[in-house]
Amino acid sequence: MMARVLLVVALASTGCLRGDGAFRCSADTSCGAGGTCAGGYCAFPDSSCPGGARYGALSGPFANQCVAAIDAGVDAAFFDAPIDAPIPTPMLVANAHGHNTAVTSIDVQLTIPSSGIKHVIVGVVSVSNGAAAAADPDPALTWVCPGAATLTLNVVADVRDAASHSRTQVWLRGAPATNMVCQLHVALASACVNVHVGALGFINVNQASPILNGQTSTGTATSAQNNMIASATTNLVVSTIGASTSISAHGASQTLVYTDDVTATALDNTSVTTARGAASVNQSFTVSAVGLWQIASVSLQP
Questions:
Q1: In this model, does residue 264 exceed pLDDT 80?
Q2: I need a surface site. Which of 23, 116, 270, 272 has the fewest CB within 10 A?
Q3: What are phi and psi of 35, to 5 degrees?
């Protein structure tokens, strides 16, 4: 492998050595003897890979990974023409969360690493006025970083229970400032009884069309479900729940990001999970007792 690293560096003049250390090729000749330019990165013969080739150490997000297998019956001809590189799936790289009561704004600090490509900032919010007569206030989310333009996030999933004056939302914005301490700022039209906020940084997310699909649900049973979310195998499904009782578990296919249980009243408990996409995905949580819950899920696409 060391020989491959030295070879690619020595030939940098025939390709492009990026600031992040990744080498981008434009033709097979950029990769040296035995190498091929596959989807913009150099690959080399490796019999242990299904497709017979492995990306080199300077291949950015595909470094040292097997090149995706190609159609059966194609062997040595693979090295005569480049093929599409595998699509990297969205990935969570940073998260933080917080909660407060009787406030008109709340901030959560987060640093999104600069490594990787196609960054997005996702904000998840649950607000409630409990049994109060006042309706739940409308939130507005911005990404605030020192020395950078403030970005306004867009709501991509919203579920509301008017009778209980509560709602749970997912917000998103592409191309956020990275590699610095920033704040996800939530401004509320009026003070509410409870507000929960999560800030999530992702990479490998399509900047023009980040959301393949979104779905919401609400109920009162102890088994909270958001079923049959249309997704894809290259997607990542992000789900958040706001619940009036403690959140004790999540579905087997889901990976827990965080749970913030505060009290057993007034939608003051939240949890966030991620799950690999499929043709359809079920998202579920278990709450400790009968009580109002709301789930909002979105499928992030590369």
A1: no
A2: 116
A3: -95, 160
